[in-house]
Amino acid sequence: MPTYISGQRCSTYDSSCPKKTFIKKYESSTFPIKYPSSGISFDSYYSHQDMNEYMHYLAVRFPERVCIRTVGQSFENRDIKLIHISNGVRSANKNIIFIDAGIHAREWIAPATALYIIYQLVENFEANQELLDEFDWIVLPLVNPDGYEYSRGKFSYWRKTRSTVKSNPCRGTDANRNFAFHWDEKFASTDPCSDIFKGKQPFSEPESRIVAQILLELKGRGKFYISLHSFGNYILFPWGWTKKLPPTYGDLQYVASVGAEAIRSATGSTYVYGSAASCLYPVSGSSFDYAYAVAEFPISCVIELPGKGYRFHPIPKIIKECVEEAWIGIKAMAIAVIKKYGRT
């Protein structure tokens, strides 16, 4: 049974106790194929270009089940791509699970986890076919490629985008404080030099606009949204902007509990789950609140992935352990969502 943390509305499992389709067309691969056999490994962190190359490799190898879409460009004009994964039966009516990662540049394990999800759904399709019978999955593995590459090459703790603010030397906006839902509130900063700078206006960042565009295009079909972050063992859901509970709190709590218990049962790792404002800290202008309230995803959450003692950058030899642990919880939650919402 879950153990409730005193004074908070959060829980933890303690180990001791078609006509119109979202994807408009296939993209042909213009990248050299680097992964001729197994596709990818999980013993290092990949560059933005490598991630795109891997997705294009999958589109070439599995064209009946995979297609790629360029959804826009970052501030520094890097292509931001998503992958749409199906079981090969294309239908404009299938519901969608949408996952994004890497909105915060320094959280390297998040894009690595997104790649592992893609690997499981595509290259390990036979073991995960039930996840694709009634739902398609859309994964955007790197929301903030500019910040990610700056973090990899210049300053590993860089968090924000790399946009510029007029008359200020500080660069970047926290794209997860930049969504047009309770944006101009106290749980973000007005200081461009702050790590949680909310931007000069909602959706000032191309990266946040891209995520919002996808969410809104999926309105009605999108049933489960996950934004991958790090670090800490949390499964968090709305609200971020207030400690008041959302109207479907029971459904959100149930799905999160399924993920936490699956991880605990398989690995012994304990995950706290509950509303973000109560269990971690308040946040305004977030993607997960926007997905729930504006794009009407009935289940929306943030997973704060494990650091395993290495904070935002688990060392290469434990990347696989981290992403496998996350997949256990995500798969269990996805099954719960599929059972509840089924096909329209």
TrEMBL record:
InterPro entries: Peptidase_M14
GO cellular component, one term: extracellular space
Active site per the UniProt annotation: 304
Cofactor(s) the protein requires to work: Zn(2+)
Keyword Metal-binding among record annotations: yes
Any one GO BP annotation for this protein: proteolysis
PROSITE patterns: PEPTIDASE_M14
Domain Peptidase M14, first and last residues per copy: 44-337
Keyword Nucleus: no
Keywords: Carboxypeptidase, Hydrolase, Metal-binding, Metalloprotease, Protease, Signal, Zinc
GO molecular function: metallocarboxypeptidase activity; zinc ion binding
Similarity field: Belongs to the peptidase M14 family.
Protein name: Peptidase M14 domain-containing protein
